[in-house]
Amino acid sequence: MPKEPWNAQWDDRPAEYAETRNCWLSRRRALAVAGFLQNARPGQRVLELGSGVGELLVALAAERPELRFTGVEPQQSYVDFSSERAARGGLRNLEFRMGTAERAPEILGDEGGGFDWILSNDMLHHVPAYGAVLEAAARSAQTGARWLVIEPNWRNPYVLVGCAVKRGERNFWPRPFLADAAAIGWSLRDRAFLFLVPPFWKRPPEAVIRLERLLEHNPVLAGGVALTLALERPAGLPMPRRGR
Questions:
Q1: How far apart are CA 219 and CA 119, in angstroms?
Q2: So where are the chain's domains?
Q3: Measured between alpha carbons, how far is 82 from 223 in angstroms, rounded to an integer?
Q4: CA atoms within 13 A on the CB side of 243
Q5: What does each C-alpha distance from 53 to 118, 171, 225 come to in angstroms?
Q6: Are 143 and 190 a contacting pair, CB within 8 Å?
Q7: Could you give the CA distance from residue 56 to residue 8 in angstroms, rounded to a whole number?
Q8: Class at the top of the CATH hierarchy for domain 8-231
Q9: Which of 30, 134, 157, 198 has a C-alpha 20 to 30 A away from that of 105?
């Protein structure tokens, strides 16, 4: 992880940051994640690496009370804010813990190693190396677990330039990520493209939403890429900590 905060502009203003995420893009992401979890069985556990201000897990925990959710997030202010949201909603199937994704097994302790489903949203393109997160995710999951990775789509020219020039951003490169993932035991099961409506558009008209559904699967137009991985075997192979 970078030594400086991922989102320093909002460190002490989690409520304001949460408001910026109150938009159609967040709702579209939530729909994609809900589809990913549609086959989750009662009692199964879901881990989000980089849970931010918690809006995704709060919504999922309310909709799926039969599942158990845990969020790991490096910013304490976000963890406190998310935990308060969960408490206000009476969500006993949801908890948040402070720490980086690379340290997830240590943070989770005895409760780690048994997650059935893993989520990460716009997190991997912030880290300096994929290997440590891949190892941590594998050690937090049981064999056969599924991991939904949603990241900016470098094939979109606007996304490519934006991630290259904005402070604290990097582009996400699927090919080296998947090569590192395979060495750990993660295999690619699905690749999809999504998102067309920009985040500043809070409530687009239905016509725009329909247009997004038609065009977002184009790998050049889409703002995001979604990779579904499966853990074929327990972690155990050493991974290089090379940067991207």
A1: 21
A2: 8-231
A3: 26
A4: 5
A5: 17, 22, 22
A6: no
A7: 21
A8: alpha beta
A9: 30
**Tokens 């910026």 found at:** 20
Q: Where are the alpha helices (DSSP H) in 23-173?
A: 24-36, 55-63, 76-88, 104-108, 131-140, 157-165
Residue 92 C-alpha from the chain's centroid: 22
Q: What is the pTM of this model?
A: 0.90
Tokens of 3: 């030594």
Tokens of 212: 């997004």
